[in-house]
Every structure is written in C-alpha cells, then in structure tokens.
Target: SDR family oxidoreductase
Amino acid sequence: MVHALIIGAAGMVGRKLAEQIAQEGSLNGKPLSKLSLVDIITPAVPAGAPQDTSCSACDFSLEGEAEKLIADRPEVIFLLAAIVSGEAEVDFDKGYRINLDGTRRLFEAIRAAGDDYCPRVVFTSSSAVFGTPFPDPIPDDYLAAPLTSYGVQKAMSELLLADYSRKGFLDGVGLRLPTIVVRPGKPNKAASGFFSGIIREPLNGQEALLPVADDVLHWMASPRAAVGFHIHAAGVSGEAVGPRRSMTMPGLAVTVAEEIETLQRFGGEKAVKLIRRERDPVIEKIVAGWPRSFAPTRALELGFKADDSFDAIVRAYIEEEGINV
Amino acid sequence: MVHALIIGAAGMVGRKLAEQIAQEGSLNGKPLSKLSLVDIITPAVPAGAPQDTSCSACDFSLEGEAEKLIADRPEVIFLLAAIVSGEAEVDFDKGYRINLDGTRRLFEAIRAAGDDYCPRVVFTSSSAVFGTPFPDPIPDDYLAAPLTSYGVQKAMSELLLADYSRKGFLDGVGLRLPTIVVRPGKPNKAASGFFSGIIREPLNGQEALLPVADDVLHWMASPRAAVGFHIHAAGVSGEAVGPRRSMTMPGLAVTVAEEIETLQRFGGEKAVKLIRRERDPVIEKIVAGWPRSFAPTRALELGFKADDSFDAIVRAYIEEEGINV
Model:
C-alpha cells in the first residue's frame, strides 16, 4: 500500500498526475492507500480517488507547514509546486522563498522526522537549469548554468536533492521537464506559450499568434508524458539512478514547421490559416537562448518514455480535452 | 582608492592574501585606502597595512553581521570563510549554515544596501564541486555534481553568485581552487594532507606517511598561486567573465612520483628516505574519487596564472616559510 502526497496538485501537471494515480488506484503496481493533495488553492478531488483522500490549501514553504504535510509519513512525495519562471524573475524574494526555501524546508522536515523515514521524493525540475551557449544536443553531463532566477532555484534544489539523498535522509529523483505542449486552457503570458497556442487556438477555432520563424526547434513533451515521467520516477530504483539524482527527461525536438504540419493533419487548412505570423524580436531573442535538443541517455536507460511523435502529442490533447476536430 | 574586505582573513590563504595586498599597498594598481580583515578569530595586522586597517572577530553567517561588515561599502570583498570539507560532512547543519546561508546573507546584505552599491565579490570555491565519473581532463562546461555536502554548498553558492551578478546586485567572480600544496604548518587530518606532507615533513627533517601509490595524479596550486588568483579576480572584467561567474583555476597535474623527484632535487636522498610508504585503502578510495586534471581554458584566457612547475611550488614554500635546505 502506498500513501502519495502531491504538493502542487492544483497545477496543470499536478492535477493530471493526481487524476491518473486516482484512476489507476495504484502507483507502479502498488495499491494506493491514501492520496494527499495540497496546493496554494484547494485541489479538486479526482475521480476514483481512494476514500482516504485529503485535499487542502497551504503554502508549503511557510515555517511549520512541511512538518504537517509529512506528519503521517507518505511513502511517495511529488514536489511540483513552484513560482513560475516569469514571476520568479520579477519577484526575486518570492521566487527564492518558494522555489528554494520551500524545497529545503520540506527536505529538512523529512530529515527531522527520523525513525528511518526515507520517502521517495520526486522533484519537478526544468530544462531552465541550462543556459547558453549549448552544445546541440545537450548531453547529460553538461553544466547547469541557468540564466534566470527560476533556473538557479531549480538547480540549487537539485543539488539539495542529491545531497539529502546521498546522506540517506530521503530518496530523491529530479525530473528536468521539457516544455509542456499542448498546454490545455487559456493562453498564458509565458514566452513559450505560442508552442502550445499555435495548436490549441486553431483547433478551437481561434486565431493564434506565431512570433518566431518556422524553423525554430524546441524540446517538448505532452502533459501525458510529463505525468508518465512522475509516475515512473516514483518507482525507479534510487541505486540505478545513482548520485546524480536529477535528469533531463526525454522529449521531442520539434520545429514550428513540424507543429504546423501536424496541425494541418488534425485540423486541416482552415486551422492552419488561423495562425497569424507576427515576428516579435523580444520573444525571438528569449527563444534563441533556450535549449533546442537533448541527448537524455540516462533517463532513457532508466525507462522514462518520450511521446512517440508530435502527432501523438496533439492526439493526446484532443482526446484528453475532448476537442471536436 | 580601494577598500578591501577579507572574510576569512585568519585562514591560510586569507592571511597570505592580506599580507600580499598590504605589502603591495594596492590592488591591481589601485592604491589601498582601507583593509578590513575578519574571521571567526581576530586576524593579525599584516606588515605594511594601511593606517586604516581593522581586524575583527565575527561569525559573518549570523543574522545582522554581514550588514555590519559592508556598512562602509568596501569596493572589493573576498569571501574565503568556510567550514572545511571534513567538518561539513560531519556537521550537516553547521556546513549549510556557514557555507550556504552565510554566503546568501552576505549577498542579501549587499543587495539590500542599494544605492548602486555593486562590489566585486571574489568567492573562493573548490574543485569539490565536481564528482566522479570525470572526463580527463575536465572541461569548463562539465557539470557540478558534488559528492560531499561541502561541494554542494560551494556549488549552490556559485549559482547564487551568478544570479546576484546577473541581476546587478553584485559583481561576482568565483574561483574553484586546486588542492593547495605545499600547505605550511602542522599536518592536518584532511585526506589530501599527504600531498603537502610528503614535501613539508621531509624538508623539516620529519617522517611523512604516503598512503597511496606513486602514480596518483592530482591537481595542485601553491598558496602563492592561490593568492594570485584572488588578486587577479579582484580586477578582472565582469563582462569578460560573462554569466558563468565561477571557473576552475589553473593548476598543475602532478603525480606523487613527480613530487618525490622534486623533493629529491631540493632535499636530497635523505629527505626522500623520510617518506614512509603505507597504503591506506580508505584514503586510496577517497583520492580515487577526486579530479585528476582540468582544462581550465576560460581562466587562462582571462589571465589567471598557474605555477610554472612543481619545482616552483616547492621553491615558493621554502622561500615563504624560511626553510633551511
């Protein structure tokens, strides 16, 4: 029996992860005894959740909160909660408080629990730990030299995860997620938003802005793949992972042109016509500083699975969100 | 005119750095207006120090202390103070408190000072940020995957240094020091101690233990070179350093056999005979996990200078410590 705690269960990936675990009723074959879902707003109870499911709102980074979250010793803890890149860049203090101090407080609470308590902690990191210049593809042993405060906070948390794991205080696995495409819901202000927008908006009959050239290449994974990474990480052997606890997750290196070809296949010419090309030098410059492709050898060897194709990514979006095409 | 603050001025490198700056009366050509020396014990006043020199004892990592240290706005701050590797491994809390929280409190105090205060911060890091397996030599863009808490604390501090520099809160340069050989003074308990011991003890007529094989290769720099790195770092252009603020310093990859050949040249056969070979599997295992050699391309391009040879390292030791050979 497994008790799983998801911190950040109201976010897009956290919510889908909770839904998937609840639906399966198990985690990597072990029956689910309890599901604890927390976020800064109260997460929804997912369909099929065990009777013993708790959904609560708290700021896990505040003093004393982490201790409460782990009071009944969940065997698996997913830490997805974070201040996103843009906000962490604008609000320096808040970014460090949540993304670094929150992580550390949780790890300290686990360490302080003692009594051989050593949960699997799945930490959601990001390819934002990398900064230009890059080799192409980026190998697993390339340095983390982030160029945003968010990336720094994630890279520092990865180092803590490794050290607390090495000392036996917890058993961590860190996942450097690709950009998630297709993000469901409304467009957001993220500079990477158009990678989802040029699929999502046209499939919903709406215009989408494309601010970069068609040959821009980017590293992507579907929400479904991201959920799969988290579930697989909950069960992977810590010994097999070794001391380098955080890894680049497998994704697909997809160009904007390839995205549009896929859109054509699913939505036809009428969908493609809804893409309005309007180059934005600011976004072009940001995107030029992002990783384009990786060689995620370690993650593949450990059994983490990328999407099969960009077509599969779009098909998953259409299925999961019930889009009419 | 330059006001320089040295935090950790009673340590071996800090003391020599203070002495060198005081003796020169300037820092990279700029006359020294003031020298502030602090450590956990009161540092000595170095010969030739300017009239306006203050030596004080404080724990810079305690709340409120960093603010006092920077109250009169030193233009250059050397942060050498640290809990060493062995102690940080044994006392987890103390290591993080001094080596991580202390660094962060100093950086936060500088940021909070505002008023365009943006000092050059020279941060003393270590090749302990690297962990096996390594390529040989290790390039500048190899990942920091430390296998000690000390290495993690240094790697995290490097990330902070880069982020605070990128945001314009300070102007940082981080130095990953090689193992310092020949360390003057008494033997210490460090696993790397024998690299100095097999030179120092025989030159002082005493027996030295050699716990590893003669073909063990290690990355070394003299105390004089380490002082030179710090002084050069105080004057190097932050723009030239770029966003990756911390760098491997140039050293020499020297085998134990080469050390002994040099000892022979300076101390003759009678010195070499004072080396007692007694293999220690524990130390052999630790040493096997250490970096052997680096390709410190960036530091060399920026003008950081290694020792000329291991003979020069031993000659510097003999001169500086006034050894009779």
Q: What stands out?
A: The domain at 2-177+222-249 of chain B is CATH 3.40.50.720 (Rossmann fold). DSSP finds twelve helices and 13 strands in chain B. The CA atoms of residues 1 and 30 of chain B lie 6 Å apart.
